[in-house]
Amino acid sequence: MKKLRVTVEGKAYEVLVEMLDEAGHPAPARPAVVSAPIQAAPVSAPIVSAPVSAPAAKGPAGAGDVPSPLAGKVVSIDVKVGQAVEEGAQVATVEAMKMNTYIYAPKAGTVSAILVNPGDGVEEGTALLRIG
User: Fold this and answer.
1) Spelled out in words, what is the top-level CATH class assigned to the domain 2-41+58-131?
2) For residue range 76-129, what is the model confidence (pLDDT) as tens digits?
3) Are 93 and 118 spatial neighbours (Cβ–Cβ below 8 Å)?
4) Do 91 and 76 form a contact (C-beta atoms < 8 A)?
5) How many CA atoms does the CB half-sphere of 58 hold within 13 Å?
C-alpha cells in the first residue's frame, strides 16, 4: 500500500493505493514514508500545464534527501539553499496527471542543496533537495 496526498479543487485528501506487479498480485512492501499533517491548499487559478518533459536523470534519494513521492514534473521549489526549515514545512510541489502534490520536509534542518529545477521531470524516489 502506498499513501498519497491528492488535492482536488483546493481540498487535500489522503488516499491509500495498492501497488500491483505485472501479474496483478500485490507488489512487495517498501519502506513507509513519513508524511506531515494535511493542510488545505488555497484555491487559485486553474492549473495549465505544459507537456511533461522526459524525467531528469537524477539518482535515487539518499540520507538527508527529500525524495519525490511520485513521477511527475517539478512545479516549484519553495525553499532556498541555506534556508532553515521545520519538520512538515512545504518545500516543493510536483505535478502529475494535472494534480499538484505538495512535498513536506521530513525533518527540521537547513537546506544544503537543491537537486532539481522547476520544469524538470522526475521519477518516484528522485532526490529533490537535501536537508542537513
Assistant:
1) mainly beta
2) 999 999 999 999 999 999 999 999 999 999 999 999 999 999 999 999 999 999
3) no
4) no
5) 26
